[in-house]
């Protein structure tokens, strides 16, 4: 996941997926051209085998308008978006799909079906969102979490958010992901609760409550991504200036950070929801097909890592 001169992260990501089998994916309500095209193009790249769940007539009309071929694609006909979300989740529960992908419905509709107590996909882990971002000015991929689901997470929620991101980074090939826990300053103070949480998370990591990563915090953003900034401030850390994961204090900070990286630094991004039984490809309706494909590629790698873990546990 380190940056290689002359080669884009998008192309490297797709190259890593070429040796893997496509993953059956339930696509909930792909009734808009971009959402449908994203799923079908991901299938053309060998990333997923889409199962399109939604009103068949609307899906076929969107395909006709966009000039897309649905001849070899399975369609599960349901009357509306709520039913599409429920049926897509059911396909995952029945083992017919190993990934869940959002189409052109609202995120809340899909996630409501995911977190349903009796029929959903919840685990003991808190559900969280990650942006996987290729920032041109940074030397490797950055994972930003959580910028889309958990509004004001407490300490226990942050521990789950952190573990979800570490597990994903591990599935992408990192042995010990470096986690920078962000705050407004790099010192612990009771005046800024995020710094207290950061210190506690580091201690939780030392005690084995968070596994597989190397944590440091609180770190201000400049210290997290710049070795020079950390050195000037006298911060001795193997994470500072070399972070793989940026754990933000709350959704507002994370959302602002991710959008700044996208719109000011021209970062490419992919989006996933973690902590459910399977990875969930949760892109924005405004996302490009390129972004949707990148999200499918990351989800595919995570799904294959999940398969290996399940086989190892048997």
Report what the structure shows.
This protein has 314 residues and is of the alpha/beta class. The protein has a domain at 124-275: Isopropylmalate Dehydrogenase, CATH 3.40.718. The chain has eleven helices and eleven strands. The chain has helices at 9-17, 33-44, 56-66, 81-93, 107-115, 155-171, 193-206, 221-225, 227-232, 251-263, 289-313, and strands at residues 23-28, 48-54, 74-77, 99-102, 128-134, 142-145, 178-182, 214-219, 245-247, 268-274, 280-281. Strands 3-2-1-4-11-10-5-6-9-7-8 form an eleven-stranded mixed β-sheet, with helices on both faces. Helix 2 links the parallel strand 1 and strand 2 (48-54). The longest helix is centred in the last third of the chain and has 25 residues, at 289-313. It is globular, with a radius of gyration of 19 Å. The two termini are 30 Å apart. The model is unreliable at 1-6 (pLDDT under 50).
Q: Concise description?
A:
The chain is 43% helix and 18% strand.
The tally of helices reads: 11
Secondary structure class reads: alpha/beta
Strand % is: 15-25%
Task: Report the count of strand segments.
Answer: 11
Oligomeric description of these chains: single chain
Shape annotation: globular
Percentage of residues in helical conformation: 40-55%
Largest sheet: 11 strands, mixed
Tell me the CATH topology of the domain at 124-275: Isopropylmalate Dehydrogenase
Cα-to-Cα separation, first versus last residue: 30 Å
- What is the CATH superfamily classification of the domain at 124-275? Isopropylmalate Dehydrogenase
- Kindly report the average pLDDT value: 92
| Strand ordering within the main sheet | 3-2-1-4-11-10-5-6-9-7-8
CATH C-level of the domain at 124-275: Alpha Beta
H/E element sequence: HEHEHEHEHEEHEHEHHEHEEH
Low-confidence stretches: 1-6
Kindly provide the radius of gyration, computed on alpha-carbon positions and rounded to a whole number of angstroms. Answer: 19 Å
CATH architecture of the domain at 124-275: 3-Layer(aba) Sandwich
């Amino acid at each position: 996941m380190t940056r290689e001169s002359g080669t884009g992260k998008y192309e490297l990501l797709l190259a890593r997926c070429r040796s893997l089998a496509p993953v059956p994916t339930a696509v909930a309500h792909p009734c808009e051209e971009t959402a449908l095209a994203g799923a079908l193009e991901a299938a053309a790249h060998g990333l997923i085998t889409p199962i399109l769940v939604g009103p068949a007539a609307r899906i076929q009309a969107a395909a006709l308008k966009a000039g897309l071929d649905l001849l070899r694609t399975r369609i599960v006909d349901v009357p509306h978006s709520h039913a599409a979300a429920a049926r897509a989740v059911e396909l995952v529960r029945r083992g017919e799909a190993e990934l869940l992908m959002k189409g052109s419905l609202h995120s809340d509709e899909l996630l409501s079906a995911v977190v349903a107590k009796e029929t959903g996909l919840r685990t003991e882990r808190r559900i969280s969102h990650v942006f996987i971002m290729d920032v041109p000015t940074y030397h490797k991929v950055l994972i930003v979490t959580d910028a889309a689901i958990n509004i004001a997470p407490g300490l226990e929620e942050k521990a789950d958010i952190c573990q979800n991101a570490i597990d994903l980074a591990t599935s992408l090939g990192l042995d010990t992901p470096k986690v920078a826990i962000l705050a407004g300053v790099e010192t612990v103070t009771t005046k800024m609760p995020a710094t207290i949480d950061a210190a506690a998370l580091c201690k939780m990591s030392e005690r084995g409550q968070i596994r597989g990563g190397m944590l440091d915090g609180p770190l201000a953003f400049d210290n997290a991504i710049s070795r020079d900034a950390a050195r000037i401030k006298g911060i001795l850390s193997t994470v500072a200036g070399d972070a793989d994961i940026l754990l933000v204090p709350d959704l507002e900070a994370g959302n602002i950070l991710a959008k700044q990286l996208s719109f000011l630094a021209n970062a490419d991004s992919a989006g996933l929801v973690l902590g459910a039984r399977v990875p969930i490809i949760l892109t924005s309706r405004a996302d490009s097909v390129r972004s949707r494909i990148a999200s499918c590629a990351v989800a595919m790698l995570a799904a294959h890592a999940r398969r290996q873990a399940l086989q190892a546990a048997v």
